[in-house]
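REQUEST FORM: STRUCTURE PREDICTION
Request ID: SP-0412
Submitted by: Lab K.M.
Chain count: 1
Length (residues): 374
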Amino acid sequence: MQAQKHPLSGLHSANTFELTSFHFGTPGAGKKVYIQASLHADEVPGMLVAQFLRKQLTALEQAGRITGEIILVPAANPIGLAQAIQGAAFGRFDLTTGINFNRNYKHVFDDVKVSLDGQLGQDAQQNVRLIREHARASIATWQPKTDAETLKKVLMTLAVDADIVLDLHCDNEAVMHLYAGTPLADAVAPLSALLGAHALLLALEAGGEPFDEACSRLWWDLDNHFKGSVPIPPACVAVTVELRGEAEVSYDLAERDANALLRYLALNGVLTDDDAAADLPAPLCAATPLEGVEPLYAPHHGVLVYTRDLGAQLQPGDAIADLIDPVSGITTVLRASVAGVFFARSAHRHVLRGMNVGKVAGATAFRAGDLLSQ
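STATUS: Completed
RESULT:
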C-alpha cells in the first residue's frame, strides 16, 4: 500500500486542507478501481466501510491477490469534515459557496468529443485507451477557483480513467439503494444483489453533474455523438452506493458491506477468488428508472409520524405517514401516488412546508429535468 497526499488549498488560504488516497496493487497490470467514502462529509457509514476495506486490501495485496490497481479514499471531503454549524456537522454543501459537494463536476465530453475527432477506429479496446488519455488531459486543464473545486479536480484526476468507480454515500434514513447510468444496468446488477439493495435507480443523465456521472456518462455521450460509427463501450462502471441512513454506523454493517464490495471486485477479475461467483444472493429488486422516483413533500408544518416501514412495497394511495399540526391538531395523511418501494425518508420528526419526507421508487418514468435531491 502507498499513501499519497494531495494539497487542496491555495496560497494565502485561511485554512489548509489535503486529501489522502491509498493505492493498492499495480497500475496498468489490470483493471483500475476507484473507491471513495463520504463525499458528503456528514454521511459517516462509508468512512467506516473504508476502514474494513483498507485492512482487507492490505492483506489481499500482501497475499498477491490484487490483479490490477485499487485506489481507496476513505475520507473524500476534508473541507466538509471541518464544517459545523453550532455543533452540528454540515458536510453536504460548501459553506463558502453553497454548492453541493456532489455537483458541478467537469463533464469532459465537451472537450473530448472535439479532441478525439478523426482519431477513433474499429478496435474497441484501443478506443477505450485513447478516450481515457483524452479524459485525463481534459481534467488537467481544469482551473479551480476555490478549494472545493480543487478537491473536485483531484478526485476526478484519480477516478476518471477507472474501470469501476464506487462512490459511498448514505441517505437521511433509508434502506440500501444504488444509483447508476442506464447503460450499466447489467454490470451493476450483481453489486445490487450482493449489497441487498432495495432499489437500483438508473438514468442516462440525473442532472447537476454528480461525481459518478462525471466518470461514466462520458462513454454513452460519446457513443451517441459518434452515432455508432466506432465501437465505444460503457467502459466505466460508476455507482453511487447509498449505505442506508446516516445513523446506521455499526461494525457489523460496515464489515458486511465491505465484504460485498470486495466480492464484486472479485467477480470483475480485480481480485483472485475462485468462489466469487458461487451462490450469489437473489436480488431484492429489479432496476427502475430514476425518473420513476416519487419525492413526497410536506404540505404544511407539523409532527411527522411514519405509518409504513422503509422497504415497504406500496400501491397508489397507500399512506406512509401522518402530519399533525401541533396547535390545531389537524392531521394530514401523506400518501404515495405510484406503486413502488418506500426506500428513503426524513430523519426529522418535525418538518416545515415543502420539506422532502419520503421517496418511492416506481417502475414507470414520469419525471424529467434534475432528478436528484439538492
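NOTES: The longest helix spans residues 45-62.
Reviewed by: T.R.
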